[in-house]
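Translate structure to sequence.
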């Protein structure tokens, strides 16, 4: 019993103790759950000072909740770690670390990161600041490379003027930074600038920041023979306009003192205005192998007189806002060869550009013209006084030369005017389009892509002449000559493909095409007298339309005309084809008409409108055996008498007229099919057809 009792009591005590222990554990656990730690405060950046500077600049970061222990703060400049020099809960001081780049500053404390403002990492300012109170250089001086590597050697905040025949020489490797409206280097009064670097050690003319238009530029306004930029980099210029040229540009040759200079192996980029601007009276002695890119206007602005100075090895195309060379002013007074470059030459004056000397254009060149501009020989206000000028534009099949308007479409520029007889006048493998917006010579009354005046002569071959406001080609004067005109395409012109004079229609060739797309599908011919040379008329893919002469007369023929099979003549009202001279019926009698077609390709003489008597007809007054019509169709003539003594019909034979007509059709005359007037006429007929002639077939 006692043992059992003792055991039972013991178990009860243990149970109670266990419950007490369990209760105490529960109470302790509940107490722990009710007690939580406060989170660490978030770091905050309110400002940085300064906000920019070069590597090594001390920067104070202001804010809150930083660690007082420097090593517990992690500071980064755009992800590059910086060493903390000192810290408090509100300020951290660091230096901009090596390798830092522009971007945001961050501070990390106790695994929490704050992001602050951007810090701009600048290049370290070094170099000698030029004293602007002594900015005029009047005795020769050399600026040496005083800082190593890419460090800046000189800082210029004003206009450096080199005068009094002094020479400023800049050594290879020199870096100059410029700032200010008038900041730059300017030569005048014999002063010179010789900046000759090397491929490995270029000279650099830069702005104090990497923006366009930070400083003015480099200007040559002297004839010093040492003026030269070679292996020079020019950036960030063009801040203000030149007083001489009136334009912004990084490098300029000024009008003043007939300036001269050379630009070779240079990089001219990221400037406001033009990369290079060359004025009329300057002398660009050597310009080669430059790179001109990313400028706010054209790579080059150049006077027309300087157009031959540019070279094909320079790069003009990349990134410039105006992707062309801007050609200004109006007169070419020197011989010039226009070289193929990687952009077009754009003529921007909106007026005629005058050629007084020899202009040669290389294959592949593109010339484009703004509205109102054109290219013509001679002097303003004078059409025929100049005969020494020439235009030699000889391209190739794979590299044609292009003359066009800036805007597409018919009549967007004035066109080309030729008034010299130079054998160098050639347009071969050229594409000429969009001219004919206005007349190019004072005496003209028609508009064209190409206008010939005075005693001009030009060879045109393998060229396309299209989209003129009126005519593809306008032969303004009777003395003008299309010399060796071959294999051309005249298309989509606003009037006829060609206007010319009757004595010169033999200059056209049958290998050219005249039909496609022209508003008036014919050659418009002014019916001037044929008195000096014999004429062979070739078959074209359009008719020859014969208008009356400037004096209102028909075509009078005093020489031999030979007409090839397939030729079509169509005559306007009051026009005709008459052997003889105006006012004289039978003298001279040397003219002849030899028109021999074939059965499937006849020669046609007709009116511009169908019907009896819509044009005058053909007059024969010579006794030569060369007067032959064979396989011809002659219709619609006989509108009025041809000779003073009379005669009205499709054909009128007068004086000692002698004519053979074989295998031909004579119809729809307003008078006779064939009318005899008087004298010992001789008519040989064989296998002809007469039809619908008002007065009858033959008057005997």
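Result:
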């Amino acid at each position: 019993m006692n043992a059992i009792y003792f055991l039972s009591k013991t178990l009860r005590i243990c149970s109670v103790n266990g419950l007490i222990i369990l209760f105490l554990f529960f109470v302790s656990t509940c107490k722990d759950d009710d007690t939580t730690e406060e989170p660490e405060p978030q770091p905050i950046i309110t400002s940085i000072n300064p906000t920019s500077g070069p590597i090594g600049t001390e920067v104070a970061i202001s804010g809150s909740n930083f660690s007082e222990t420097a090593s517990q703060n992690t500071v980064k400049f755009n992800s590059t770690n910086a060493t903390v020099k000192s810290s408090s809960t509100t300020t951290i001081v660091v230096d901009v670390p090596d390798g830092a780049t522009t971007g945001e500053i961050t501070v990390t404390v106790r695994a929490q990161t704050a992001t602050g403002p951007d810090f701009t990492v600048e290049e370290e300012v070094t170099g000698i600041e030029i004293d602007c109170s002594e900015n005029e250089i009047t005795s020769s001086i050399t600026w040496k490379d005083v800082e190593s590597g890419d460090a800046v050697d000189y800082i210029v905040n004003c206009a450096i003027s080199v005068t009094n025949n002094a020479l400023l020489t800049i050594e290879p490797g020199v870096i100059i930074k410029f700032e200010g409206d008038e900041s730059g280097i300017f030569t005048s009064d014999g002063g010179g600038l010789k900046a000759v670097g090397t491929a490995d050690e270029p000279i650099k003319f830069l702005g104090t920041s990497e923006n366009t238009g930070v400083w003015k530029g480099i200007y040559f306004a002297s004839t010093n023979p040492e003026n030269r930029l070679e292996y020079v980099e020019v950036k960030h210029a063009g801040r203000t306009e030149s007083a001489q040229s009136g334009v912004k540009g990084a490098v300029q040759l000024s009008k003043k003192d007939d300036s001269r200079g050379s630009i070779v192996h240079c990089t001219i980029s990221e400037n406001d205005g033009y990369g290079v601007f060359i004025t009329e009276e300057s002398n660009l002695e050597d310009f080669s192998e430059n790179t001109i890119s990313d400028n706010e206007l054209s790579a080059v602005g150049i006077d027309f007189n300087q157009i031959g100075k540019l070279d094909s090895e320079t790069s003009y195309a990349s990134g410039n806002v105006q992707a062309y060379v801007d050609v200004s002013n109006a007169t070419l007074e020197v011989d010039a060869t226009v070289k193929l470059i990687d952009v077009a030459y754009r003529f921007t004056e909106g007026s005629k550009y005058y050629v007084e000397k020899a202009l040669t254009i290389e294959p592949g060149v593109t010339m484009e013209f703004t509205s109102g501009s054109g290219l013509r020989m001679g002097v303003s206000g004078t059409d025929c006084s100049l005969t020494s000028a020439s235009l030699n534009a000889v391209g190739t099949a794979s590299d044609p030369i292009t003359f066009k308007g800036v805007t597409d479409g018919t009549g967007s520029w004035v066109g080309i005017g030729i008034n010299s007889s130079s054998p160098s006048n050639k347009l071969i493998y050229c594409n000429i389009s969009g001219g004919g917006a206005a007349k190019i010579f004072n005496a003209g009354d028609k508009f064209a892509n190409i206008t010939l005046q005075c005693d001009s002569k030009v060879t045109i071959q393998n060229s396309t002449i299209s989209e003129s406001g009126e005519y593809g080609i306008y032969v303004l004067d009777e003395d003008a000559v299309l010399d060796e005109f071959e294999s051309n395409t005249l298309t989509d012109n606003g009037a006829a493909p060609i206007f010319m004079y009757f004595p010169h229609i033999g200059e056209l060739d049958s290998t050219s095409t005249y039909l496609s797309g022209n508003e008036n599908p014919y050659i418009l011919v002014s019916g001037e007298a044929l008195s000096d040379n014999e004429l062979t008329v070739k078959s074209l893919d359009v008719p020859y339309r014969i208008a009356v002469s400037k004096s209102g007369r028909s075509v009078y023929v005093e020489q031999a005309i030979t007409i090839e099979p397939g030729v079509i003549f169509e005559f306007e009202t009051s026009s005709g084809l008459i052997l003889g001279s105006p006012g004289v019926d039978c003298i001279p009698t040397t003219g002849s008409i030899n028109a021999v077609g074939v059965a499937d390709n006849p020669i046609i003489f007709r009116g511009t409108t169908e019907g009896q008597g819509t044009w005058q007809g053909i007059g024969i007054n010579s006794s030569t055996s060369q007067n032959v019509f064979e396989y011809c169709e002659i219709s619609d003539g006989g509108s009025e008498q041809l000779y003073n003594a009379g005669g009205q019909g499709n054909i009128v034979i007068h004086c000692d007229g002698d004519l053979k007509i074989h295998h031909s059709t004579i119809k729809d005359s307003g008078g006779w099919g064939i009318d005899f007037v008087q004298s010992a006429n001789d008519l040989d007929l064989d296998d002809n057809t007469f039809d619908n002639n008002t007065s009858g077939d033959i008057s005997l």
